[in-house]
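Quiz preparation item.
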Protein backbone atom coordinates (compact mmCIF):
# COMPACT_ATOMS: atom_id res chain seq x y z
CA UNK A 1 0.00 0.00 0.00
CA UNK A 2 1.24 3.51 -0.80
CA UNK A 3 2.20 4.91 2.58
CA UNK A 4 2.38 8.42 1.14
CA UNK A 5 -1.35 8.45 0.37
CA UNK A 6 -3.52 9.89 3.10
CA UNK A 7 -5.95 7.41 4.61
CA UNK A 8 -9.64 8.23 4.34
CA UNK A 9 -10.51 5.26 6.59
CA UNK A 10 -8.32 3.76 9.31
CA UNK A 11 -9.39 0.52 11.00
CA UNK A 12 -7.36 -0.82 13.91
CA UNK A 13 -8.03 -4.07 15.76
CA UNK A 14 -11.70 -4.13 14.80
CA UNK A 15 -13.65 -6.98 16.39
CA UNK A 16 -17.35 -7.71 15.87
CA UNK A 17 -19.08 -10.75 17.33
CA UNK A 18 -22.64 -11.90 16.88
CA UNK A 19 -23.34 -15.63 17.25
CA UNK A 20 -19.70 -16.07 16.28
CA UNK A 21 -16.72 -13.80 15.58
CA UNK A 22 -17.44 -11.91 12.34
CA UNK A 23 -14.39 -9.64 12.37
CA UNK A 24 -11.48 -10.47 14.65
CA UNK A 25 -8.80 -7.82 15.11
CA UNK A 26 -9.08 -6.37 11.60
CA UNK A 27 -6.57 -3.70 10.47
CA UNK A 28 -7.16 -1.68 7.31
CA UNK A 29 -6.35 1.64 5.62
CA UNK A 30 -8.42 2.95 2.72
CA UNK A 31 -7.24 5.85 0.59
CA UNK A 32 -8.96 7.98 -2.05
CA UNK A 33 -10.20 6.72 -5.40
CA UNK A 34 -12.40 3.66 -6.01
CA UNK A 35 -11.68 0.81 -3.61
CA UNK A 36 -13.47 -2.50 -4.12
CA UNK A 37 -14.28 -4.77 -1.19
CA UNK A 38 -14.70 -8.23 -2.69
CA UNK A 39 -15.52 -11.56 -1.16
CA UNK A 40 -18.23 -14.21 -0.96
CA UNK A 41 -21.56 -13.52 0.72
CA UNK A 42 -21.32 -13.86 4.48
CA UNK A 43 -17.61 -13.06 4.72
CA UNK A 44 -18.13 -9.88 6.77
CA UNK A 45 -18.23 -7.19 4.09
CA UNK A 46 -21.50 -5.59 5.22
CA UNK A 47 -20.41 -5.75 8.87
CA UNK A 48 -17.20 -3.92 8.00
CA UNK A 49 -19.10 -1.25 6.04
CA UNK A 50 -21.58 -0.80 8.89
CA UNK A 51 -18.68 -0.37 11.29
CA UNK A 52 -17.16 2.29 9.04
CA UNK A 53 -20.37 4.35 8.89
CA UNK A 54 -20.85 3.95 12.65
CA UNK A 55 -24.06 1.90 12.79
CA UNK A 56 -22.53 -1.42 13.89
CA UNK A 57 -22.01 -2.39 17.54
CA UNK A 58 -18.36 -3.42 17.87
CA UNK A 59 -16.63 -5.38 20.60
CA UNK A 60 -13.16 -3.92 20.17
CA UNK A 61 -10.84 -1.75 18.13
CA UNK A 62 -11.20 1.67 16.54
CA UNK A 63 -12.47 3.03 13.23
CA UNK A 64 -11.47 6.53 12.12
CA UNK A 65 -13.16 8.11 9.09
CA UNK A 66 -12.03 11.39 7.56
CA UNK A 67 -10.08 12.06 10.74
CA UNK A 68 -13.00 11.50 13.14
CA UNK A 69 -14.27 8.46 15.07
CA UNK A 70 -16.82 6.45 13.08
CA UNK A 71 -20.36 7.48 13.96
CA UNK A 72 -19.33 10.98 15.05
CA UNK A 73 -22.08 13.53 14.41
CA UNK A 74 -19.64 15.62 12.38
CA UNK A 75 -19.51 12.88 9.75
CA UNK A 76 -23.23 12.77 8.98
CA UNK A 77 -22.99 15.20 6.10
CA UNK A 78 -19.65 13.87 4.87
CA UNK A 79 -20.55 10.22 4.24
CA UNK A 80 -23.09 8.81 1.79
CA UNK A 81 -24.16 5.26 2.60
CA UNK A 82 -26.08 2.91 0.32
CA UNK A 83 -27.27 -0.35 1.87
CA UNK A 84 -28.36 -3.47 -0.01
CA UNK A 85 -31.96 -2.60 0.91
CA UNK A 86 -33.33 0.42 -0.96
CA UNK A 87 -33.80 3.53 1.17
CA UNK A 88 -36.18 5.30 -1.21
CA UNK A 89 -39.97 5.22 -0.81
CA UNK A 90 -41.91 3.45 -3.57
CA UNK A 91 -44.97 5.71 -3.30
CA UNK A 92 -43.04 8.96 -3.77
CA UNK A 93 -41.53 10.33 -6.95
CA UNK A 94 -37.76 10.47 -7.30
CA UNK A 95 -37.75 14.22 -6.64
CA UNK A 96 -40.08 13.89 -3.64
CA UNK A 97 -37.72 11.31 -2.16
CA UNK A 98 -34.73 13.58 -2.67
CA UNK A 99 -36.48 16.57 -1.13
CA UNK A 100 -37.59 14.50 1.86
CA UNK A 101 -34.11 13.13 2.55
CA UNK A 102 -32.65 16.56 1.86
CA UNK A 103 -34.75 17.99 4.67
CA UNK A 104 -33.59 15.18 6.94
CA UNK A 105 -30.02 16.22 6.16
CA UNK A 106 -30.84 19.81 7.01
CA UNK A 107 -31.37 21.76 3.82
CA UNK A 108 -29.86 19.57 1.12
CA UNK A 109 -33.21 19.29 -0.68
CA UNK A 110 -31.98 22.04 -2.99
CA UNK A 111 -29.45 19.47 -4.23
CA UNK A 112 -32.13 17.40 -5.99
CA UNK A 113 -31.49 18.71 -9.48
CA UNK A 114 -27.72 18.29 -9.17
CA UNK A 115 -27.85 14.69 -7.97
CA UNK A 116 -30.52 13.76 -10.52
CA UNK A 117 -28.17 14.91 -13.25
CA UNK A 118 -25.24 13.07 -11.63
CA UNK A 119 -27.07 9.73 -11.75
CA UNK A 120 -28.71 10.46 -15.14
CA UNK A 121 -32.28 10.40 -13.81
CA UNK A 122 -33.41 13.89 -14.80
CA UNK A 123 -35.94 12.45 -17.26
CA UNK A 124 -37.45 10.40 -14.39
CA UNK A 125 -37.55 13.20 -11.84
CA UNK A 126 -41.33 13.02 -11.47
CA UNK A 127 -41.70 9.25 -11.83
CA UNK A 128 -42.97 7.31 -8.82
CA UNK A 129 -40.11 5.12 -7.58
CA UNK A 130 -42.29 2.00 -7.61
CA UNK A 131 -42.53 2.33 -11.41
CA UNK A 132 -38.78 2.50 -11.99
CA UNK A 133 -36.72 -0.36 -13.40
CA UNK A 134 -34.17 -2.09 -11.17
CA UNK A 135 -31.30 -0.04 -12.55
CA UNK A 136 -33.19 3.23 -12.24
CA UNK A 137 -34.13 2.39 -8.66
CA UNK A 138 -30.47 1.71 -7.84
CA UNK A 139 -29.54 5.09 -9.27
CA UNK A 140 -32.32 6.79 -7.27
CA UNK A 141 -30.93 5.15 -4.15
CA UNK A 142 -27.46 6.39 -5.04
CA UNK A 143 -28.83 9.90 -5.66
CA UNK A 144 -30.00 10.06 -2.03
CA UNK A 145 -26.47 9.18 -0.89
CA UNK A 146 -25.05 12.01 -3.03
CA UNK A 147 -27.13 14.71 -1.34
CA UNK A 148 -24.94 17.27 0.35
CA UNK A 149 -21.80 16.39 -1.67
CA UNK A 150 -20.27 13.73 0.63
CA UNK A 151 -16.52 13.23 0.78
CA UNK A 152 -16.92 9.46 1.12
CA UNK A 153 -19.40 7.03 -0.43
CA UNK A 154 -19.84 3.62 1.20
CA UNK A 155 -21.82 1.38 -1.14
CA UNK A 156 -22.92 -2.12 -0.16
CA UNK A 157 -23.31 -4.25 -3.32
CA UNK A 158 -24.90 -1.41 -5.36
CA UNK A 159 -24.85 -3.40 -8.61
CA UNK A 160 -26.36 -6.66 -7.36
CA UNK A 161 -29.05 -8.00 -9.68
CA UNK A 162 -28.32 -5.53 -12.48
CA UNK A 163 -27.56 -6.49 -16.06
CA UNK A 164 -24.03 -5.94 -17.44
CA UNK A 165 -24.93 -2.67 -19.22
CA UNK A 166 -26.40 -1.12 -16.08
CA UNK A 167 -23.46 -2.32 -14.01
CA UNK A 168 -21.07 -0.74 -16.51
CA UNK A 169 -22.96 2.56 -16.39
CA UNK A 170 -22.88 2.66 -12.58
CA UNK A 171 -19.16 1.93 -12.48
CA UNK A 172 -18.56 4.73 -14.98
CA UNK A 173 -20.48 7.01 -12.62
CA UNK A 174 -18.40 5.87 -9.65
CA UNK A 175 -15.22 6.81 -11.48
CA UNK A 176 -16.62 10.21 -12.47
CA UNK A 177 -17.35 10.85 -8.81
CA UNK A 178 -13.82 9.75 -7.88
CA UNK A 179 -12.43 12.17 -10.47
CA UNK A 180 -14.36 14.92 -8.63
CA UNK A 181 -12.58 14.04 -5.36
CA UNK A 182 -15.07 11.64 -3.76
CA UNK A 183 -13.58 8.54 -2.12
CA UNK A 184 -15.60 5.37 -2.74
CA UNK A 185 -15.60 2.04 -0.92
CA UNK A 186 -17.76 -0.42 -2.84
CA UNK A 187 -18.53 -4.00 -1.81
CA UNK A 188 -19.31 -6.77 -4.27
CA UNK A 189 -19.26 -10.56 -4.51
CA UNK A 190 -18.87 -10.38 -8.31
CA UNK A 191 -15.19 -10.96 -9.04
CA UNK A 192 -15.35 -9.57 -12.58
CA UNK A 193 -15.98 -6.12 -11.10
CA UNK A 194 -12.47 -6.15 -9.63
CA UNK A 195 -10.87 -4.67 -12.73
CA UNK A 196 -13.08 -1.59 -12.39
CA UNK A 197 -11.43 -0.66 -9.08
CA UNK A 198 -8.30 1.37 -8.39
CA UNK A 199 -7.54 -0.80 -5.37
CA UNK A 200 -8.96 -4.05 -4.05
CA UNK A 201 -9.59 -5.56 -0.66
CA UNK A 202 -10.13 -9.32 -0.94
CA UNK A 203 -11.94 -10.71 2.08
CA UNK A 204 -12.86 -14.18 3.33
CA UNK A 205 -14.32 -15.33 6.66
CA UNK A 206 -13.73 -11.97 8.31
CA UNK A 207 -10.08 -11.68 7.32
CA UNK A 208 -8.31 -9.70 4.60
CA UNK A 209 -6.45 -11.90 2.13
CA UNK A 210 -5.02 -9.06 0.03
CA UNK A 211 -5.19 -5.27 -0.29
CA UNK A 212 -3.50 -3.75 -3.34
CA UNK A 213 -4.12 -2.79 -6.95
CA UNK A 214 -5.66 -5.45 -9.23
CA UNK A 215 -2.40 -5.69 -11.20
CA UNK A 216 -0.31 -6.14 -8.04
CA UNK A 217 -2.62 -8.88 -6.71
CA UNK A 218 -2.49 -10.76 -10.00
CA UNK A 219 1.30 -10.42 -10.10
CA UNK A 220 1.62 -11.55 -6.48
CA UNK A 221 -0.36 -14.71 -7.16
CA UNK A 222 0.89 -15.34 -10.70
CA UNK A 223 -2.66 -15.46 -12.05
CA UNK A 224 -4.48 -13.85 -14.96
CA UNK A 225 -7.69 -12.78 -13.22
CA UNK A 226 -8.88 -11.81 -9.75
CA UNK A 227 -11.06 -14.88 -9.24
CA UNK A 228 -8.03 -17.10 -9.81
CA UNK A 229 -5.99 -14.84 -7.55
CA UNK A 230 -8.62 -15.13 -4.83
CA UNK A 231 -8.62 -18.92 -5.05
CA UNK A 232 -4.83 -18.97 -4.97
CA UNK A 233 -4.81 -16.84 -1.81
CA UNK A 234 -7.46 -19.04 -0.17
CA UNK A 235 -5.50 -22.19 -0.99
CA UNK A 236 -2.28 -20.61 0.28
CA UNK A 237 -4.04 -19.55 3.49
CA UNK A 238 -5.42 -23.07 3.96
CA UNK A 239 -2.00 -24.59 3.37
CA UNK A 240 -0.52 -22.22 5.97
CA UNK A 241 -3.16 -23.24 8.51
CA UNK A 242 -2.45 -26.90 7.91
CA UNK A 243 1.32 -26.54 8.25
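Solution:
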Amino acid sequence: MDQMAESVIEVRGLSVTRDRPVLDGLDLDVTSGVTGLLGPSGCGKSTLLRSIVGVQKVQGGTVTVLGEPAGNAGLRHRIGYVTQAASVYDDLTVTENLRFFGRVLGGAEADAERVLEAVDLTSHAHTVVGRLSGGERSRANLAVALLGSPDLLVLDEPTVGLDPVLRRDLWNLFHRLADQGVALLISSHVMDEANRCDRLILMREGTILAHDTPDAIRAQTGTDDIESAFLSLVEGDAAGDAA
